[in-house]
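We modelled the chain as a single entity of 198 amino acids. Its sequence is:
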Amino acid sequence: MKIIGITGGIGAGKTEVLAYIKGKYNCEVLLADEAAHQVKEPGGGCYEALVALLGREVLAPDGRIDRKKMAEKMFGDETVLRQVNALIHPMVREHILKEIERAGREGKIDFLFIEAALLIEGGYTDIVDELWYIYAGEEVRRRRLKHFRNYSDEKISGILGRQLSEEEFRKHCKVVINNGCSLADTYEQIDEKLEGYL
């Protein structure tokens, strides 16, 4: 089983790439965002600590953490953002390591993909066999974020400003998939890599 980390900036099309891979290859996909949501649920590993840190005002009427309220608290304050990340990231990593161990034990798949925006910063390079950088130029990404997510220019600039530079991504990733042109072209690049491993 080969473990491949998928990373790249917002709007690069990581979801699209993984949907294609999932439909065609004998693999499993772990999404760090999904794991992060699980650990924030009531009873999850971070729930109590997050409520203690952010205050009960971030809770929705059903007792769950309201993502929008939490985001407002974090993005207005660098210190809070760091504290939240310090709680969530180790738990997500632990969850992913358990899933890798389980998949390895079961021995049913050829590939295990881990998708996370912060694979490099989170130190996942020592967990995966190789890292893939899903690349699309800034203009393409801006267009996608406006069209699909309705983000304003200001919001997009803020997010892009907090992400790793293209140089950083390229420095850490063994494979670069250019997802800025046609999907057929993207799929061809993926097939060339994965079929070479089978």
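As a brief sanity check on the tokenised model: The beta strands are 2-7, 27-31, 111-115, 130-135, 175-178. The radius of gyration is 18 Å.
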